[in-house]
Amino acid sequence: MISRSKVEHIVSLIFNGVNIILYALVVVAVIFKCIKGNFADIVMGIYGIVMAALMIVNELQEFEFSYHYFYFLSTYRGRGFLMVFFGCLVLDTGIVNIVVGTLVLAAGLLYIILSFTSNFPPPNPITINWRNWNDFSAEGLDLPHHRGANDTVVVRLSSYFNFILCLKTVYRVKCMSA
């Protein structure tokens, strides 16, 4: 059976691949929009191409600069809102623009929904996810998953019940160790 850590790393790598493909499609759709567009469409298109190219580079490589100044890129909610922005930027009357805009908008909404789940690891560049995948996929190396927020509640409750049992039996028997 495959461990939860391996599944998370596989899904993270899939998200990285999908992000790179979607950003490349944004570049293509913006070029199609600029071909028949006016001056304002061309200026916004250049802005969109530069931003999508920077997002591809950010998806491929880890930069301390982006984590420090553009922290929203390291959260699913921030990436989701950026995808929604790209989807709105490329939407136009052409078939390519409609298809790419819809795909990018759907991915953005998926990321925004995913941001409300706390059990999934934060988004990382593909180099970090690939390194983690290689570390965890070694033969027979299923490292335990870090403890989530729900696990600490169970530990606290069990400690509380052990404390109550200890108080009840303090005069009769030695306290149970937690």
From TrEMBL:
<keyword id="KW-0812">Transmembrane</keyword>
<feature type="transmembrane region" description="Helical">
    <location>
        <begin position="81"/>
        <end position="114"/>
    </location>
</feature>
<dbReference type="GO" id="GO:0016020">
    <property type="term" value="C:membrane"/>
</dbReference>
<protein>
    <recommendedName>
        <fullName>COPI associated protein</fullName>
    </recommendedName>
</protein>
<feature type="transmembrane region" description="Helical">
    <location>
        <begin position="12"/>
        <end position="32"/>
    </location>
</feature>
<dbReference type="Pfam" id="PF08507">
    <property type="entry name" value="COPI_assoc"/>
</dbReference>
<dbReference type="InterPro" id="IPR013714">
    <property type="entry name" value="Golgi_TVP15"/>
</dbReference>
<feature type="transmembrane region" description="Helical">
    <location>
        <begin position="153"/>
        <end position="171"/>
    </location>
</feature>
<keyword id="KW-0472">Membrane</keyword>
<keyword id="KW-1133">Transmembrane helix</keyword>
<feature type="transmembrane region" description="Helical">
    <location>
        <begin position="38"/>
        <end position="60"/>
    </location>
</feature>
